[in-house]
Every structure is written in C-alpha cells, then in structure tokens.
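Why do we care about 3D structure at all? Because function follows from shape, and shape follows, mostly, from sequence. That is the central idea of this module. The next example makes it concrete: a single protein chain, its amino acid sequence, and then its structure expressed as tokens.
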Amino acid sequence: MIDAVVIQPGTDPGEPSVAGVSWAAVAAGAVVSCALTLVLLALGVGLGLSVVSPWAGSGVSATTFKLGTGLYLIVIAMLSSSIGGYIAGRLRSRWIGVHSDEVYFRDTAHGFIAWAFASVLGAVLLASPATSLLGGTAAGLSQGAASSASQAAGPMEGYVDTLLRSDTPAAPNAGNAPDSRGEMVRLFTNSFRNGGELKPNDRAYVSKVVAARTGMSEADADKRINDVVTQIKADTDAARKAAAHLAFWLTASLLLGAFCASLAATEGGGLRDGTWGNRVRR
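And the structure:
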C-alpha cells in the first residue's frame, strides 16, 4: 500500500522560504542612484555655467542651452538608474527552486522598485530645502513689510516702470508718487493673475494715470499700455512654454530611468545567479 502524503493547509512545498523582495538591496540601489544623481547634477550646473555668457555673441544660444539641459537630464536618469538597478539586482538574495521566468520578473521588479524609491527619496531631499527657503522668505517678507513695503520688488514692478517712464525729464507730474505706483502694481498683478486682461474701466484709469505722470497725450498713453500688455503676455507665454518643455524632459527622463533600472537589475540578478548568458541567448 502506498502511503498518502498529507499536506498541511496553508503550506506549499514548492515555494522557497526566501522573501520575494530583498528590501536591503532595493534600498542600497536607491541610495546609490540618488547619490549619483546629485553628483551628476552638480557636474551639470558647472558645465551649464561654463557655456553661458552675458556678453553678446559669446556662449551658446538659449535654444541650444534648453536642448542640452533636457538631454543631460535624460543622461543623468539613465546612468544613475542603471547603476542603482544593477546594484539592487546583484545584491538581492538568491531564490532556490523558483522558475527562471519568475526570477526574471522579480529582478525586473527589484530594479523598478529601486527606481521608484530613489525618485521619492530625491523628491523629498529636494523638497525640504525648497520648503525651508520658502518659509524663510515668507518670514522675512512679513517682518519687513511694515518698514520697507515700498521697496519690495514684485513681478510687475518692471512693467510699471516701463509704463510710467517719462519721455521728457521736465514733464509735469513726472515725480515719484508711491501711492499711485503701488495702486498700479496691484491693479496689474490682480488683472493678469485672474484673466490676463485689464477691465475697460481699469484701462481707462491707467491711461489717465500714465498721461498725468508722463505728460503724454491719452492716445500715446493708450499705445504705451498696449505695448506693455503685449510684453507681459509674451513674457508669460515664454515662461509657460519653458515650464512645459522642462516638464516633458523630466517625464521622459523618469520613464527612461525606470526602464534602465529594470533592465540593469535583470543583468545584475543574472550575474548573481550565473544565468545571464543563458538569458541573453534566450
């Protein structure tokens, strides 16, 4: 008579006791990836400062600089993620009795998790200094608001300077009037924050203020207002496009970093088990 093998509920004799995720290896790969990212970012800042110049005709153009910055972000992501993923795969525990396809999946997952951990860790490291800087700036502004409010430069200060500039030094009412100037700054800031256009009554008032401050006719003042509004919109649109391009480059670098980390982890795991050559042939 053949004795029956009794398997206790909840047990699987074919499943190894080693955990499917080696968190120590994942953490090591993520830390290495973050460290390499910081080193390459510092190198990129140095390279960027060395190729730009305030002199006309010197240094690279703005288009070349933006393109080079985007490509360098991708290079940073590929190098740091590849090395971090390789370390995560190479240092993970060996799984005995696991099918090769499952091992391949686990190695890929190790690289992906290491990339995700490094991305979150990098975001936290970059967010903490930014939060401290913003907090210190807000505290400084609140302390100095009572004594130096008129000296605080906002994003609309330069446009108001252009708007109220007098063409003739001896123009009537060309003196500095802090009250009307502050009112103009607030009016432009609120208008372009809410919709990007001056209301008809606000525009008529601004035209009268500009004509009184500069000695220009209301027609010339209205033309100057048109020019300043057009410049504000052009600068805002350029900033929007620059931010959009940077977001696209960051997205591409993150996606390529995830792919490189996963692929490098499979190589590290295969070399750890001595099966990398078989995987390549397959």
